[in-house]
Amino acid sequence: MSARSSITTLPPVLGLVLAVAAVVAVIVSAFTWANVRSEPHELPIAVAAPAPLAEQVSTQLVESAGREAFEISTVADRAAAVDLVQDREVYGAVVVGQEGGEILTASAASPAVAQMLTQLAAGVPPQAGGPFRVTDVVPLPSDDPRGIGLSAGLLPLVIAGILTAALLATLVGTVGLRVVGVALAAATGGMATVGVLQGWLGSLEGSYWANSAVAALAIGAVGATLLGLYRLLGRPGLGLGAATMVLLGNPLSAAGSAPEMLPEGWGTLGQLLPPGAAGTALRSVAFFDGAGATVPLIVLTSWLVVGLVLAMLPVHRGENGARAARDGQSAASQPVPA
Which of 48, 56, 95, 259 minimizes the number of CB atoms within 10 Å of its CB? Predict the structure, then answer.
């Protein structure tokens, strides 16, 4: 930096310091707010018990956790409750019968919810038949019993999509090659990510190829969206897209908890963004034979298609403006004929 452009007075320094503090505050808020305010909001669970007892159990659940904490479905028996858990219709169930009380959980659906239901089972007083025994209907892999791999692996998928778009936008000059680049980067990135999570760390189960396809769709959705924004807005579009995916989409993905555990409304928004949809789809495909994957796969496909359509638009103001500026500089540098 030249002496002429250097800052030599205190007010600009204070401005820079305040700007950095503001950016840090935004980043910290984005990554901590949703988790700190985590509590159930209409969390789907089932109650399996004889009719009069089922109503009593439901009332006790509402009184213990709040009126809006659970969305309770009443089923006839334990088998029906297990079916709902395995179909991802509910996160767990309370079963009360002749053999006593039992809490069904699915740590593969949400370790945080499974832990909450386990604590609920331990808190049932002896006069009510407690503590209830706990059965994990769809457990996480023994190599990763807390589900850290899947939760932590979501951000690298987002970053892969961002890097793909940034490199293709700045280094590749034709739209067709950019589209091909997104497809290749998504495919290879998806296989590499699942290779680490499933082949090495043991954090995923099910079909390697199906899991890789979901991961590839996630990378492609992010990458195509950013390319589309670049096509419309130029480099600011890349920055806007990256900030949205990292600072909004990733914290609201609920990859480590559940959308219903986020503040009301924000969980729904998170599932409409690529990171949240990717986490739900990958969890469904890896542990539930695809149950519950339809909506998130539609969300990811929609982002991918819209991004590609935008990326192939014939008008790109950012590139045209940059090209015009370069052409102007070239014309100015040419010698003028005498």
Answer: 56
Regions of the chain with pLDDT less than 70 = 1-5, 30-31, 34-35, 66-67, 315-338
pLDDT of residue 26: 75
State the Cα angle at 237 between 232 and 239, rounded to 5°.
170
pTM: 0.85
Helix axes 294-311, 274-287, angle to 10 degrees: 140
b/e code 94-133 from CB counts within 10 Å (16+ = b): bbbeeeebbbbbbbbbbbbbbebbbebbeebeeeeeebbe
At the second CATH level, the architecture of 43-136 is 3-Layer(aba) Sandwich (3.40)
Strand order in the sheet with 70-75: 70-75, 43-48, 93-97, 100-105, 133-136
Q: Is the dihedral of CA 226, 231, 232, 235 positive or negative?
A: positive
Q: Which two tokens stand for residue 152?
A: 């932590």
pLDDT tens digits for range 228-261: 999 999 999 999 999 999 989 999 999 889 999 9
DSSP 74: E
End-to-end Cα distance, the chain = 39
Could you identify the residue written with the tokens 């899947």? 150
CB contact at 8 A, 216 and 186: yes
The residues with which 95 forms a beta bridge, in sequence order, are 48, 102
Length of the chain as a residue count = 338
Contact 182, 164 (CB under 8 A): yes
Name which of 286, 305, 304, 285 is nearest 294 in CA terms.
Answer: 285
Classify burial at 9, counting beta carbons within 10 Å of its beta carbon; exposed 0-12, middle 13-18, buried 19 or more.
exposed
Q: For helices 235-243 and 208-233, give the axis angle rounded to 10 degrees.
A: 140
Residue extent(s) of CATH 3.40.190 domains in the chain: 43-136
Reading the block at residue 285, the tokens are 């495909």
